[in-house]
Structures are given as structure tokens and as C-alpha cells.
Amino acid sequence: MENYTKGKNFEPSLESVGHPFSTIIGEDSLVTWMKVKAGSKIHNLMSYALNDLKTKNYIIWSGFGHAVGKVVSCAEMMKRRKKQLCQITRISYIDFEEYWDPKDEGLDQLKVVRKVPIVHILLSKLPLDPQELGYQAHDSNLFDVPKTAKKKPRARKPKIEEKEAVSEE
């Protein structure tokens, strides 16, 4: 790659990709689509989404590349604050095109296509079809410990008394 310099990049926008939930939610106008970028502040995203959830039935969180972790964090934080939200998750890839221009004569321009992960998470106040792929009910939490399970007390180690060394003279 020492004979090439970075040229143009073509990154699709979230609007051009769209979201995969139009068949699930229909043409409902009570939808907020949160398009998360890597530089987005979680505090700002959450305050806007929580305020919008008062009047909307659905929130869609979307992001690709470095924003995927932020999308998941925001959706999980929202589910923790609003307990009755159902979730459907869709994961796929989008293509990013990079062009590399040659430094030397006689070389062709290179086109590199990278596959970047993209995630869409639909949170709904209304019940969703449990047969949908990627469905999570509002009360499913994998990390909750049953309240009937009790922690066993730890066994104590017996104290070992130190004895003075006796010299044999």
C-alpha cells in the first residue's frame, strides 16, 4: 500500500439504509428513530428518547461501526428505566467503499469494500409478536438471580497458632 494514497470514501447513511421494522410497526407515526453515531453523547440521546417515549409507542435505536456498542447501551438503559418495553433486534452488515489513488503512473485505482456491522433495536410500549426473530419480552432479564436462592455462608478457616521454636542445645 506504500504506492497508494487514500482517496474518497463512500459511507452510506442510516437514512439510505433504512430500518427493518416497517413490516412490524406498519405506517405508525408514533415512532422515534434514534440514529446513533460514535461521537454521540449517551446523556443527550437518553434524555431526548425518554422525553419522546411519553408520546410515542416505538423507539428504534440504530448505529453502525463504532456506534454499535452505544446503541446496545442506550437500549438497555432505556429498558431498565421503563420496565414494560418489548424488544426486537436486527443485526446485519453494510458495505463501505474506500478508494485508493496510485502514486505512480501505470497503477490502477483500488477499490476496497469493507463490511461494517449495523444494529437496529426496536423498543415498543405495545405488545409485539413473540414469534419474531430477535424478540425479547419486557420481563426477560438473563442476569436476575432468583430471590429464593440464598447465599451460603463461607466456612471459616481455623486459626493456626504459632509456636515458638525450641532450640536443641
TrEMBL record:
It is found in: Nucleus. Residues 148-157 have a biased composition (Basic residues). GO terms for biological process: tRNA 5'-leader removal. GO terms for cellular component: nucleus; ribonuclease MRP complex. Residues 144-169 are annotated as: Disordered. Residues 158-169 have a biased composition (Basic and acidic residues). SUPFAM superfamilies: AlbA-like. Keywords: Nucleus. Residues 33-93 form the DNA/RNA-binding protein Alba-like domain. GO terms for molecular function: RNA binding. This is DNA/RNA-binding protein Alba-like domain-containing protein. It comes from Artemia franciscana.
